[in-house]
Amino acid sequence: MSFGTLPNALVVVAVVVVVLARRMSWSELENSDTDVWRGPLILMAAGVYQLYDRHTGLGFLDVVLLVIGAAVALIAGTASGRVAQVERRAGKVFFRLGMPGLAIMVAYLVVRLGLAGVGHLLGASMSGGPALMVSMGANLLTQSVVIQNKARREAEEYSTR
């Protein structure tokens, strides 16, 4: 692991720990766009910037790994968002991932880190930190959008009863 990769890995680990801790406990869902988009987009933008900043051409293997990583992120984000628990309390919407969501997130992280390891072994130049940041941002963004849509549907069902 190079010195440049270590800070990226630490950022990804810190984000994962904070997000999992927050999403495992009941949190109020504010249905504002900034609540859904801000964090994941910042993480993705930092990853894309670092990918671009390296000024290395993306090879075929890099592109394949980025596409597979994005697909895994979107699938895991959708799945964990669908199993998230959503409750309405005193007119406010709360959510948490729960154990099934945690299991999906852990499986996603294992697969994604395995993909980064395979990319490193095969000599891909973009399999590490920046690609992980983009993938994690895409995962969290997808998860947030699915949870927000689920909360809207349940709020509509609650109001029509």
Number of DSSP strand runs:
3
Structural class: mainly alpha
| Lateral strand order in the biggest sheet | 1-3-2
What's the average pLDDT?
82
Which stretches are poorly predicted, pLDDT < 50 over at least 5 residues? none
* Number of contiguous helices: 5
Spatial gap, N to C terminus: 56 Å
Shape: elongated
Portion in helices: over 70%
Order of helices and strands: HEHHEEHH
Major sheet attributes: 3 strands, antiparallel
Write a structural description:
With about 160 residues, this protein is mainly alpha-helical. About 75% of the residues lie in helices and about 5% in strands. It has helices spanning about 5-25, 35-55, 60-85, 100-120, 130-160; strands spanning about 25-30, 85-90, 90-95. It has a three-stranded antiparallel β-sheet. β2 and β3 form a beta hairpin. α1 (about 5-25) packs parallel to α5 (about 130-160), α3 (about 60-85) runs antiparallel to α4 (about 100-120) and α3 (about 60-85) packs parallel to α5. The longest helix has about 30 residues, at about 130-160. The protein starts with a helix and ends with a helix. About 30% of the residues are buried. The model has no long low-confidence stretch (mean pLDDT about 80).
Question: Key features?
Answer:
161 residues; mainly alpha; three-stranded antiparallel β-sheet; 5 helices; elongated
